[in-house]
Amino acid sequence: MDNIAIEFEADEIELSIDRAVALGLILNEAVTNSIKHAFDGDGGRILVRLQAGVGYGEARLTIEDNGHRIEKVGVGGSGLKLIDSLVRQIGGEVDQQSSEHGTSTLVTFPVIN
């Protein structure tokens, strides 16, 4: 879709290659899900945020869209299962919420093993 804006905000964080690759795959899957399922012809906005220092030795990756609500959060296809698997792989936790204002996926993870 041509009318979807993607905005990025990122703190500088040094990560191992394993964590960086897993986070890249999580980001790709979450953004793809938003593009495929959240928006109609009017488009929308996706905000990607990477925050350091959200807990002791932890960081958070947040992907938020302002699209359509997910009716059954946490119940989904292979994309959501892939996100869950990748989050477990890096020792993190995922929280997905959806409302009439859009859907957010928050991944909190330890910065080091």
Overall description:
- The protein is α+β, with helices and mostly antiparallel strands and 113 residues long.
- The chain has one domain: 2-Layer Sandwich (Heat Shock Protein 90), CATH 3.30.565.
- The chain is built from two helices and five strands.
- It has helices at residues 17-37, 78-89, and strands at residues 4-10, 44-55, 58-65, 93-99, 102-110.
- The protein has a five-stranded mixed β-sheet with strand order 1-2-3-5-4, with helices on one face.
- Strand 1, helix 1 (17-37) and strand 2 (44-55) form a beta-alpha-beta unit.
- Helix 1 runs antiparallel to helix 2.
- The longest helix has 21 residues, at 17-37.
- It is globular and about 40 Å long.
- It starts with a strand and ends with a strand.
- The mean pLDDT is 89.
Topology, element by element:
Blueprint: E1 4-10, H1 17-37, E2 44-55, E3 58-65, H2 78-89, E4 93-99, E5 102-110
Parallel strand pairs: 1-2
Antiparallel strand pairs: 2-3, 3-5, 4-5
Helix pairs in contact: 1-2
Shape: globular
Mean pLDDT: 89
Q: What characterizes the major β-sheet?
A: 5 strands, mixed
Distance between the termini: 38 Å
CATH class: Alpha Beta
- Please tell me how large the radius of gyration is: 14 Å
Strand order, main sheet: write it out: 1-2-3-5-4
